[in-house]
Amino acid sequence: MRITVEELELHPMVVSLTYTAGTLDYHGAAFRQAAPLKVDAVAELAGSEIHIRGRVGTSLEACCDRCLVSVAIPVGRDFDLFYRPLSTIARTEEVELPEDELDVGFFSGNGIELSDVVTEQVILAMPMKVVCRTDCRGLCPVCGTNLNLEKCSCLPTPENSPFSFLKKG
Ligand SMILES: [Zn+2]
Ligand SMILES: [Zn+2]
């Protein structure tokens, strides 16, 4: 749904929506939405800016960086954001934004798409590294055995040691 300045001029908008898995586009991110995504938000005008705050909640699924098993990642994230009309950039382009305004976003046209706000929050909520457990042993680099589940008889060699790059040059 679109949150428009025209509508906010009349009244703040209270939004409570659920996006089922597969309906949001995460721009090729390396995870998938594994449960319905719930968003509750309030949008209002703050001068010429759109102020939107609320919470997104869902569950994601991604592959462990080390052993590739699927890992469930619960997401619950509060947000409090300001979007400034893009048309104001031209006028303020030579003015540096004060430090505390760096997370101000911009919108073009008559408003913002709620789905854009939501997908951005979910992408920000993803951890940088996904591991199934902190002591995950990963896959054997030679035979691909999941070393959490079984042992293999491969011996680490200089070529496949994760530290082999240290010896090069
Ligand atoms: Zn793992
Ligand atoms: Zn092996």
What layout of secondary structure does this protein have?
Blueprint: E1 2-4, H1 5-10, E2 13-19, E3 32-33, E4 37-46, E5 49-63, E6 70-85, H2 87-92, E7 105-107, E8 111-113, H3 114-125
Parallel strand pairs: 6-7
Antiparallel strand pairs: 1-8, 2-4, 3-5, 4-5, 5-6
Bound molecules: zinc ion (2 copies).
- Structural shape: elongated
List low-pLDDT spans. Answer: none
Q: Provide the gyration radius in Å.
A: 22 Å
User: Could you describe the largest sheet, including whether it forms a barrel?
Assistant: 6 strands, mixed
Helix content: 10-25%
Structure, explained:
The protein has three helices and eight strands. It is α+β, with helices and mostly antiparallel strands. Strands 2, 3, 4, 5, 6 and 7 form a six-stranded mixed beta sheet that branches. The chain has a two-stranded antiparallel ribbon with strand order 1-8. A hairpin with a 6-residue loop joins strand 5 (49-63) and strand 6. The longest helix has 12 residues, at 114-125. Bound molecules: zinc ion (ZN) (2 copies). One zinc ion binds at residues 64, 66-67, 69, 131-132, 136. One zinc ion binds next to loops.
Keyword list:
two-stranded antiparallel ribbon, alpha+beta, binds zinc ion, 169 residues, six-stranded mixed β-sheet
Can you give me a brief rundown of this structure?
It is built from three helices and eight strands, in the order E-H-E-E-E-E-E-H-E-E-H. With 169 residues, the protein is α+β, with helices and mostly antiparallel strands.
